[in-house]
Design goal:
339 residues; alpha+beta; Butyryl-CoA Dehydrogenase, subunit A, domain 2; Butyryl-CoA Dehydrogenase, subunit A, domain 3; 2 domains; 4-stranded antiparallel beta sheet; binds flavin-adenine dinucleotide
């Protein structure tokens, strides 16, 4: 969905696709074939997981004007179609994956990746073209898609569950689990996290069937859920880092623990509570590091902020949907105001 919109090549966020100096800054139909097939040019930024998918579905990222007809395009493309180039994104601490051992990676099993996906004259046959030039439908398409997508940000509550577990574990290992402020901070993490889960579920419960039989989630609650996600994981991360202590950023590298001189010293001086191995203490600290500032902070924090639209995108929808006139009417009624 997300076009580069000119961040790299002197484009301008305030201009529509057709007003940009370079016509390729939003993905566009560069050519229409007599059989109804189309040829794409342009670049989508930040594409999560398309390298491990079979197909991608393209769609416009915003409402289009009549002049933007060539940019109102939605279609399906196999990821290995000729003319596509992927450029892999960098992630914080990514080179740790190339070091021996699995501790410093924090989460050696899972991670995500994003690519810039460049289309240079990619042919799409007519059966895979869903929208070509119907600018009137772009706003509704974007709004509906983002309602599903913003509601799907319940996934961050799953990550929040892991953060809660990690914060509680590190407190156990440090021998402070019984302190009242520690318990209270764990309650705060749970409270914040359930606000994400709850608004996502409310969006689904408020979903309505369309005439075609699809279900659309409640758009207001989907946007509230995503807006929670732009903020609450940052506070949850702060609390988890609070409980982890400074070792989260000063812990020596795994290879130091395998060093003949440093290893035994580290084992002696980094002991936690009795019965807890130094290795397990390191593992939980690295997991919190990984999720709050390492590779998985891409998914837990930055994607929470910008994915499915930066915070302002949700505020625009909330403002459009909050029916202020009705709320003013209720207040005036109770206040006995007659205008
Ligand atoms: C980790 C990650 C994964 C992602 N995965 C995907 C994916 O799989 N597929 C996909 O399509 N997208 C994906 N996105 C993209 C995401 O939807 C965008 O990052 C988001 O829409 C913001 O766009 P942008 O990054 O171009 O930032 P910008 O548009 O440059 O926004 C930066 C700031 O500028 C403001 N701004 C932007 N335009 C205007 C304007 N015209 N007027 C006033 N203010 C403006 C924004 O509100 C924001 O505060 C992903 C993003 C991240 C970070």
């Amino acid at each position: 969905m997300t076009d580069v919109k000119g961040a790299m090549v002197g484009g301008d966020r305030s201009l529509n696709p057709s007003q940009q100096e370079d016509p390729d800054l939003f993905v566009r139909v560069a050519e229409r074939k007599p059989n109804g097939g189309i040829v794409l040019r342009g670049c989508k930024a930040h594409q999560t997981g398309n390298l491990n998918s079979h197909w991608m579905i393209l769609m416009p990222g915003s409402k289009m004007e009549v002049a933007d007809k060539d940019y109102a395009v939605s279609c399906a493309v196999p990821v290995d179609a000729p003319g596509i180039t992927y450029i892999y994104g960098r992630q914080s601490c990514d080179l740790r994956a190339m070091e021996p051992g699995d501790i410093d990676q924090g989460n050696a099993k899972f991670g995500g990746q994003e690519t810039m996906t460049i289309f240079e004259d990619v042919y799409v046959p007519p059966e895979y073209v869903f929208m070509d030039g119907e600018v009137d439908f772009t706003q509704r398409l974007v709004e509906r898609f983002t309602a599903y997508h913003r509601r799907s940000y319940v996934c961050k509550a799953g990550l929040g569950d892991v953060m809660l577990g990690a914060a509680a574990t590190v407190a156990d290992y440090n021998g402070v689990a019984k302190a009242s402020h520690i318990k209270d901070k764990l309650v705060e993490i749970a409270y914040l996290n359930e606000n994400i889960a709850g608004t996502a579920m409310a969006s689904s419960y408020g979903g309505k069937a369309t005439p075609s039989g699809n279900f659309l989630p409640d758009v207001m609650m989907a946007n509230i859920c995503k807006h929670n996600v732009t903020k609450l994981p940052y506070e949850i991360s702060r609390l988890a880092q609070d409980l982890a202590g400074g070792l989260i950023v000063t812990l020596p590298a795994d290879k130091e623990f395998r060093n003949d001189v440093a290893g035994p010293l580290l084992e002696k001086y980094l002991k936690g509570k009795k019965g807890v191995t130094v290795e397990n203490r390191r593992r939980i600290l690295r997991l919190i590091e990984n999720m709050t500032m390492g590779r998985n902070a891409v998914g837990y924090l930055s994607e929470s902020l910008h994915g499915a639209g930066s915070p302002q995108a949700q505020r625009v929808l909330i403002q459009r949907l909050f029916d202020l006139e009705n709320k003013k009417r209720l207040a005036k009624h109770l206040a006995g105001i007659v205008e």
